[in-house]
Each structure stands twice: as C-alpha cells, then as structure tokens.
Design brief:
There is one protein chain. This protein is an alpha/beta fold. It has 8 helices and 10 strands. The longest helix has 14 residues. The radius of gyration is 21 Å and the shape is globular. The N and C termini lie far apart (about 45 Å).
Length: about 250
C-alpha cells in the first residue's frame, strides 16, 4: 500500500500529468480538496473507489484516512492542486506518514505559476532583463513568514516575484514593493488560471490594487510582479544563436 501525493494541476482537468492520471485510476481511495481540485478528475478513479473530500478535515482526520486505507491494503491517491512542491501542506502529511510507517510517493503536477505565465503569454525569464523567479506569499491569516522572507526584503533583489495566497491584500503588496520596483513596474494578476472562468488583470504597481478590488478577486489567484512581464527589447538567448559552435558541441557529445 502506498500513498501517492498527486499534483492535480492548476485547475483545468486535462492539465494533470499522464502519470498522475494513471496513478489516480488504480487507487482504491482518493482524498481530494473539494474546493480546489476539479470534480472531473474524480471520474478517473476506479468505480468502487472511496472518495473523501478533505476540505472540512483537519490533519488528524486526514491521517486517520491514510491509516484506515493502509490497514485495508488500499493505495491512496492524495490529490493536491497545482504541484505538491510548493504551498501544498504536503510536508506535515509526509511527516505523519513517516511516523506511522506508511510508504508514500510524490507525483509532480503543473504549478499555478506556470499556468499563470501561459495565460499571460510570457516567459518569466528573459535574457538580460530577468533570470530569477521568486515564489513566495505574504503573512496574513496564515503561517508567519520566516525572518528575512518578507516582501520588503525579497523586493531588494529586483527579481520577478510570484505571489501566492495574497490576492486579498493588494494595497500591502504595492506599499512594500514600490520602493524597490517603482510605480511603473508591470504587474499581472491571474485568477482561476486554466479554468473556464480564468481572469487576467494587467497593470502596474501604481494601479493594480484598484483593478484587483474592482474585479473582486480575493482567492485562487497568482500575482506576478517584475520587468520581464513587459520586456520587448532584449537580445536573443545564446541557446539558438548563430554564433554558437554547434558542430564542436556535437562532436563533444559523441
């Protein structure tokens, strides 16, 4: 018996990976976050699978479901939105499984920031403009941020910032980033990325807070801040450059 933490993707049911769908199709138990995971994915489960919506469960109750499945010898598909590697609360579940001696595996998924970049039609890393992406959030009604990871500190880097779990506080974000990025810095907000009700807001630090409030965006959104969002005049990358010695590199590879 194994618990499989499966990244269900950012919202669209067909953005789950092939491995994720195949794993889901052979697990006798499926635990899923009903408020985030598309219901269409549950059709991939075996007809007789036990389906458990974890939206109203605490960590102890979720662990009880793992133990129950383990004792019955049933594999568990634990569906998480996006990718389990960031902001998924998987770490504490794996710690409980370690303590109970229950094996588990992680099946990666499409992260929300990748779906947001696709919706924006942008590459987040652009030659000479920005080569660093910081994934973070703010500390409001959630676990406090560690020292040195506040927006004001991270903003000093000038790197592209991708903010999760922060749509309720656009004014705070603007206030902390303005000194480092300037009022003309491009900002985009992508709510419900990849879903039929996807909403994209574009602006700058000077006006994005008003646009977010006017649109009523408060959850399931990614905020992207940085110059690469509007970069147009930049050199081509070396990867496909005509100056690159491909023959020499090919000989070395052989």
């Amino acid at each position: 018996m194994t618990v499989y933490f499966i990244g269900a993707g950012p919202g669209a049911a067909d953005l789950i990976t092939v491995r994720g769908a195949r794993t889901l199709a052979r697990c006798g138990v499926c635990l899923y976050a009903g408020s985030l995971v598309p219901r269409e994915l549950l059709a991939e489960c075996p007809p007789d699978a036990r389906l458990v919506d974890t939206a109203g469960l605490n960590l102890d109750q979720i662990t009880e479901e793992f133990v129950r499945a383990h004792e019955a010898g049933h594999d568990v598909a634990r569906l998480h939105s996006g990718d389990p590697s960031v902001f998924s609360a998987v770490a504490e579940q794996m710690r409980r499984l370690d303590a109970a001696g229950i094996p588990y595996e992680i099946v990666p998924g499409v992260p929300a920031f990748a779906a947001a970049a696709a919706a924006l039609g942008r590459e987040l890393t652009v030659p000479t403009v920005g080569q660093t992406v910081i994934l973070t959030r703010i500390s409001r009604q959630a676990t406090p941020m560690p020292p040195g990871e506040d927006l004001a500190t991270l903003g000093r880097s000038g790197a592209l910032l991708v903010l999760h779990l922060a749509a309720r506080y656009p004014e705070r974000i603007v206030a902390e980033l303005l000194p480092h990025y300037g009022p003309d810095c491009p900002v985009a907000v992508v709510a419900m990325a990849s879903r039929p009700d996807e909403l994209v807001l574009r602006g700058t630090l000077a006006d994005i807070a008003g646009k977010v409030k006017e649109a009523g965006v408060v959850r399931t959104a990614v905020i992207v801040v940085g110059r690469t969002l509007a970069a147009e005049q930049f050199p081509d990358s070396y990867l496909y450059s005509a100056d690159r010695d491909r023959d020499h590199q090919g000989r070395c590879a052989n």
